[in-house]
Design brief:
By secondary structure, this protein is mainly α. It has a single domain, classed as Up-down Bundle (Growth Hormone, Chain: A), CATH 1.20.1250. It has 19 helices and no strands. Helix 8 runs antiparallel to helix 14. The longest helix is centred in the first third of the chain and has 34 residues. The protein is globular, with a radius of gyration of 21 Å. The mean pLDDT is about 90.
Amino acid sequence: MSNLDEQRVKKLMSYRWAVWGVLVLAYVIVFFHRLAVGVVKDELINDFNITGTTFANLGSTYFYAYMLMQIPSGMLADSLGARKTVTIGTLVAGIGSIVFGYAPSIFWAFFGRLLVGLGVSVVFISILKIQSKWFKESEFGTMSGITSFVGNLGGILAQTPLAIMVGILTWRTSFAVIGAVSIVIAVLCYLIARNTPEEMGLPSIAEIEGREVKKSSSQGSGLVKGLIKVISNPRTWPGFFVFAGFFGAFVSLTGTWGRSYIVDVYGISKVSAANYMVAAVLGLAIGSIVIGIFSDRIKKRKLPMIMFGAVYVISWAVLVFVNGGKPPVSILPILLFLLGFTCPAFVLGWACAKEINPPEIAGISTSVVNIGGFFGAAILPPMLGKVFDKFGGVLPPVELYQRAFMYAFISAVVGFVFIFLVKETNCRNIYEDK
């Protein structure tokens, strides 16, 4: 390799972190909005005079929009490119957050939440697309874990820091400020991010690795064929249901009802209760990076998913069944951290999606699996909300939350069962091996 080539490779290996870094900033915003409404539950219910089910539906609006946009997101990432897709999406999310913050009625709150969901829905798939172009195949699991780790920092911001911010600025101003920050990040994405190294005159990762990648059509017909190829591949679907079961349960706890559970069952203050939820979100962040690195090191996908998934189900069992649904408060932080740490068994589902489908449609294949998590997160919290509306004031808090969280436990069990149907890829693309 000539000195010039060495310099170009060195520049690629350096600049890819700037590209990934600015996009992952947008992903922090994604996670913030994903979990934020749980912290302002009482304010929303009081300001808009809504029921628990309506509140849960307001939170789920984000997930419905996110879910419905996943296949379009994959198509946009594969055609329009990650740079423009994330820029436009983050801009829309910023506007939505401002609308939500200043909503004069529940209709506008729903509309703002819908805009946020539509906007942020394109970010993660675009990051996975960027990873497939700027990082080596052997780094994909690790980078997916690191991406989830950094994104989860947004989830941590949506707990105690948001509770403190709301106390100082009010919930409305807080969401307006987050909206303004989102718009700034959108501008940075456009200025810094690039879809491929070749756009900067740099060699491709495929070229460096000495492999050939088929050119894919960026036109509608090629994308539709790619979508059909992915959804007709039976190996695609186990990861979908793992993500649905695990993430639906996790969001029901950390993004909707968890803080209220800590307050109502243990009599802990709202700000302190948010700290308990931080333990779960921090666990998810750390677990995401650990399982990605572990998987890439041992060159296995399925075994780490089974190991983490088993502990995740056990953690839910302890939360729901030990001491009638009220585990000792002394073990609660550890239990919540462990629950979060093992939940990201689903992270490897994204890597598997890429590895059991054609590499040239990585955006579409990961987007189909990604729908699963947001399908679970959209339908499960309102199911719990109906339990609270029906039995709230009738059952004591411990029994009420135990009955509601039983749905989350069942969801986790269903997700775990589907792990056993995941196809082992040994961390390489096996599409041609079918």
